[in-house]
Amino acid sequence: MNISTLKPSPTQVWQIAQSHFRTLRADTPFQPRIDAAAKTNEWYNWSGYRAPHSLWDEELEYFAIRSQAALFDISPMTKYRIEGPEAEAFCNRLTLRDVTRLKPGRVHYTAWCDDQGFVLDDGTLFRLSPDRFRLCCQGRHLPWLLDSAIGFTVRIGEETEQVAGLALQGPTSFAVLRDAGFAGIERLKPFDLADFAHESGAVTISRTGFTGDLGYELFVERELALPLWDRLMVAGQLHGIRPIGYAALDRARIEAGLIVANADFTAAQQAVRADRQRLPYEIGLGFMVDADKGHFNGRRAILDARAGKKLRYVLVGLEIEGNIPAEHAIVYHKKNREVGLVSAAIWAPTAKKSVAIASLRRPFGDLILDDLWVEIYAMRELRYERVMKRARIVPRPFIRLERRSATPPADF
């Protein structure tokens, strides 16, 4: 056999690579506008979609969030439609929070667990009407949702491809929406949602976001996506609107002390090792657990662990001396005992501090709070040098912006 005949030609290699690229990453409804804005050509795979890491300048994109209005495509976020006469009962059984308190036209941040109480994912639950919900999250959970729905009169379907999403964040975001003609947008309080006329249909706008800043999220049918983008860009010309990529959003969310599944904690179904799974109280989501609402997935295991003081970890915010980001640094007690790991860290431009989110093994971070250090490997003159920096546990978020909750928002 002639081995050379088995080797693909350069043309075949290119065709295979192109086919693989197209197969791996789909386009969102906003892709034509994003591609037109892309200067850096830095892309990553978000749930099978081609998403921008940055579009023009990562650092300036961050400052667009904090000083102007930033537009980010959230269409790849997984979206589920949950509807039917027992939709409320199903969501209440599935998630940690009491869904009976979630009124139509409201959103809440929630999470759901497996039967052992380990967190499967976190996300936002939108109550669109008395018997219709939208659940947004990072992972895909349709089999789990369908299995959990056995016995309930409810319909569940994924609508990720059918519903396009945008996040509009920053101090001038309200002014952009007002000037775009969304009358009454000033009445939305944090975690409110409402439908507004758009083209031949409607856009659902919620006062939510992932930046710790004034901001909104907009959801629209796929065929109306590009007109929505154009409408916002035209209205935002005098308000500094800028499209951004994920890197800038990630900076803002860390500064706001917000966590991401499979970054700051491992989702239960993704964990290879049992000690990687986390209970809600171990990742700062204990405030969601409503023990008075009746049964929900993982209830007994979660409450038993809390009552028996069997919680193994605690998620903390750290303020670190110096200005070197402590990305993926190991946390030590008294410089010699390894007690945890940093999952996210930045030099926070607004807070003007080096901050981090870290998971520590109890009692560190719970009962033992002092004499903590992080081990950082810093690049200096083309060499990595090991430096130990003192770390102090501080509350999250690392910044609090009054404009985030002001109603009506200020007209910047």
Automatic annotation (TrEMBL):
Give the residues the record marks as binding substrate. Answer: E217
Where the record annotates domain GCVT N-terminal, the positions are 59-293
Q: Which residues form the Aminomethyltransferase C-terminal domain?
A: 315-398
Recorded superkingdom: Bacteria
Q: Pfam family example for this protein?
A: GCV_T
What is this protein's name? Glycine cleavage system protein T
User: Organism source for this protein?
Assistant: Manganibacter manganicus
Taxonomic lineage from the root:
Bacteria, Pseudomonadati, Pseudomonadota, Alphaproteobacteria, Hyphomicrobiales
